[in-house]
Write a structure and sequence with these properties.
480 residues, alpha+beta, Elongation Factor Tu (Ef-tu), domain 3, OB fold (Dihydrolipoamide Acetyltransferase, E2P), 6-stranded antiparallel barrel, 4-stranded antiparallel β-sheet, 22 strands, 32% strand
């Protein structure tokens, strides 16, 4: 008897738990308070944010081509300089000595040229004398040849005359060779003169370079040396000054993440703020996208140069700018709050409007709409509805719009879930893309301007939250 009574109590307890869970779930659905917002239509701007450094568009680093001690400084920070103006001077004493030595060497080699030219003259006279002697000896040989034929001279006299003519002919050849040597010495001496002239020019050039001159008109924005400091120009020229050519034209060099760089284009509008100018916004344009990647701590960025006008020179070089690059602009599009993309209501089967919609179709937006990174928290795939995906852009990054889940309140006040396609985002709202083919889906006509979309699930009237009424694994929890 007691055994049957125990089984009866157990069955009653199980029935009570099941009834309580059913009642709890019914109350949660009936009494839940949903915080909603309306689907609105209007403009949408997608942007990429970053920070960068303000620099002059054109600046010149002034160095020194010679080594020495700084003897004189003629400019300081913020000094305005003109092209060719002397801005510093290195001690020229050593270089003056080098010029004097090179001058003396040049004069010595020029004297050597004169000496070599005199030797050429002497060698030329020796050649003339040797030629006369050789000609006379040759004529004497010919006369004695005739006299020998007539038996007027002896054979010995003829042979002596012939030998003398041969000797003088060879002497002429020696004189000619000596003349060529003398001429070569003149050429060599003249080459040495040119070497000494080049050495003198180099010494004078180094002496001139002891005067540091400004190559451009501008303003000194940096000075790295002072009087008495020694600069050493060995492998590279030491930096002495930095001169900005024109502070009315400035640029911001911003580091853009590799995930966003594909959305940045030349001549896109840029707005940025600077902490020194509270409440003021500056405008510029993308002037250059540098292809050289910068990797720091496994983060890859690309430098984007933003040009802007600085007519009063109020913005100073080196300031930090908070940059916002407008990558996409949409007019009159249907917008859903990003908070609605993060809502997950269990027990509601979503209607997939993505699979039925033509790719790229839009409700009030262009077919090539792009999604912004700010919508990433709310975009979800059908296979993983709880895992948000990053929204990507078709126009900017060449990637297709992503999908997300929203919950629309129907006429009966109950939410309907839909998988929808998302476009660009401004961080607060995301463009909602709906194809013409979605009209045949159940309740698809609920998605329209003015529709109430759930942005959070509040507490039920007079009871705990829906999450509090569920046990482990989502099972209903008993109300007692």
């Amino acid at each position: 008897m007691k055994f049957k009574l125990g089984w009866s109590l157990a069955l009653l307890l199980v029935a009570a738990v099941a009834l309580g869970g059913w009642w709890s779930q019914r109350d949660a659905e009936a009494d839940a308070n949903y915080k909603t917002a309306k689907l609105e239509r209007g403009p949408l701007l997608a942007a990429v944010s970053s920070s960068g450094t303000v620099n002059p568009v054109r600046q010149v680093v002034i160095g020194s081509q010679v080594s020495g001690q700084i003897k004189e400084m003629r400019v300081d920070f913020n000094s305005e300089v003109k092209q060719g103006q002397v801005i510093a001077r290195i001690d020229p004493q050593v270089f003056t000595y080098r010029v004097n030595q090179a001058t003396a060497d040049l004069e010595s080699t020029r004297a050597a040229v004169l000496n070599a030219q005199a030797n050429v003259g002497a060698a030329t006279a020796a050649v003339s004398r040797a030629r006369l002697d050789a000609d006379n000896a040759q004529r004497d040989r010919l006369r004695k040849q005739e006299l020998l034929d007539k038996q007027f001279v002896s054979q010995a006299d003829f042979e002596n005359s012939r030998n003398l003519a041969g000797t003088l002919a060879e002497a002429l050849k020696v004189s000619l060779a000596q003349l060529e040597v003398a001429r070569a010495q003149v050429v060599s001496a003249q080459a040495v003169v040119r070497q000494r002239e080049a050495a003198l020019s180099q010494a004078r050039f180094d002496l001139e370079r002891t005067e540091i001159r400004s190559p451009v008109d501008g303003v000194v924005i940096k000075r790295s040396v002072d009087v008495g400091q020694t600069v050493a120009a060995s492998l590279q020229a030491p930096e002495l000054f930095i001169i900005a050519r024109d502070l009315s034209d400035m640029q911001v060099e911003a580091a853009i993440d590799e995930a966003d760089i594909a959305r940045v284009r030349i001549d896109q509008k840029v707005t940025f703020t600077i902490d020194a100018f509270a409440g003021r916004s500056f405008e510029g344009r993308v002037g250059q996208i540098r292809k050289a990647a910068v990797s720091a701590q496994n983060v890859v960025t690309y430098t984007v140069v933003v040009a802007f006008a600085n007519p009063n020179a109020a913005v100073l070089p080196g300031m930090t700018a908070n940059v916002r690059i407008v990558t996409e602009v949409r007019d009159n599009v249907l917008k859903v709050p990003n908070a609605a993309l993060r809502v997950r209501l269990p027990g509601i089967e979503p209607v997939d409007l993505v699979a039925s919609a033509p790719h790229g179709a839009s409700a009030g937006a262009s077919a090539g709409a792009s999604a912004a990174s700010a919508a990433s928290a709310g975009a979800a795939s059908a296979s993983q509805p709880s895992q948000p995906q990053r929204a990507a852009g078709v126009d900017g990054g060449g990637r297709a719009p992503t999908r997300g889940r929203i919950h629309i309140l129907g006429p009966d006040g109950k939410p309907r879930a839909f998988f929808v396609r998302l476009g660009v985002s401004d961080g607060l709202a995301t463009e909602l893309l709906i194809g013409a083919g979605t009209a045949v889906q159940p309740d698809a006509d609920l998605i329209k301007e003015g529709a109430e979309v759930v942005i959070s699930a509040g507490k039920p009237a007079g009871g705990p939250t829906a999450a509090a009424r569920t046990g482990p694994g989502g099972a209903p929890r008993a109300p007692f």
